[in-house]
Amino acid sequence: MSTDAEQTAVSGEAAGSGEAAGSGESAGSGESAARVNLLGLTREQLQAFCALLGSKPFRARQLMNWLYKRGCDRFEDMSDLALGFRALLAARAEIRLPEIVSQQQASDGTRKWLLRADQSQAFEMVYIPESDRGTLCISSQVGCALDCAFCATAQQGFNRNLSTAEIVGQVWLANRELGFEPAGDRIITNVVLMGMGEPLANYRNVVPALRIFLDDLGFDLSRRRVTLSTSGLVPQIHRLAQDINVALAVSLHAPDDELRSQLVPINRLHPIAELLEACWHYIDEQNGRSVTFEYVMLEQINDSPAQARALARLLAGRPAKVNLIPFNPYPGSGFRRSSDAAIAQFRDLLLRGGVMATVRRTRGDDIDAACGQLVGRVTDRTVVRLGSRVEAARSRVAGVQA
Ligand code: SAH
Hints:
The chain is of the alpha/beta class.
């Protein structure tokens, strides 16, 4: 028997992980029960909340304008709202941002913030400036239960889902930290859910956050500039195809099931063929351009020419591109980064095999802000990791069959 928390960690389906207008935040988020955090509400939910307060739905527009266009987090400063409404908001609502525990800046300008989730838990977000864009990499969970063999976050185990307000709050807070001004240029042009956690395992809180990122009254980001990265939760990819149109990135990391099941244990439940089918379905349903397949380059594990050719055979002729990620090491990982030459050759073979491929530049590694290096602070894990659960389930089955 798995607990509710375990279910939530892996499938995102358990009761209690959702949020609705007026119902407060998800259990365990440490937020006040009496006041609704407006950062957790989509436009429709905010309209419903305004109606609940006896106010007109258009107040939601004004509120979103203050919140997202002007970066205002104090009701008393919202000067075009009636005083009575402001007082009501102060009593019933709040604009609560994650609290910054610490921050660091890398030599390449990458910035990383450690944010408090609860007394003893923390998660991270990273800002990556480039000449033509500014990318914010945000977290969706405190820790992660998916147990990918090479990922530092996985070593932490899973603590809990972040609420919608905590996910949206990261972008809001980063804007403020980076000096956003109401009429000024965008500082954050891209948001990627590639920080701590498996976003599709926190479906109910992540999808409303995506809606707020895309909403023209919200952060008004283009759907091509909001990327959700998943390790491959197939049922949730199908569900996402019905719900929202964002850029999809999938952590593939191996061209065959035997290796992928070792590196990304969710593959034992949803093997490559099933995963790819879900990806093509997503592209069809959302009329998308392509899925980005992330492939971490691990020396002598998944970086041989034969593996590059096998990967090309899997993806050629499909709406797919591959992003090769040089492995970012951390103490005790047990893996090594492929050489630059091996990475270049791998990319070359993919291109020759008819598959678009790029190499991700490593950013922020001197402050452990690169892919897979985010660890936050995760104690009090409520959930065993997926790899060991799958193994336990397998040995139970083997025991019955013996
Ligand atoms: N849970 C999501 C987001 C993970 S982070 C997912 O699995 O897609 C984004 C990418 O970084 C993923 O492809 C992940 O597999 C990769 N990654 C994890 N650890 C890494 C490491 N140490 N070096 C390089 N990439 C890593």
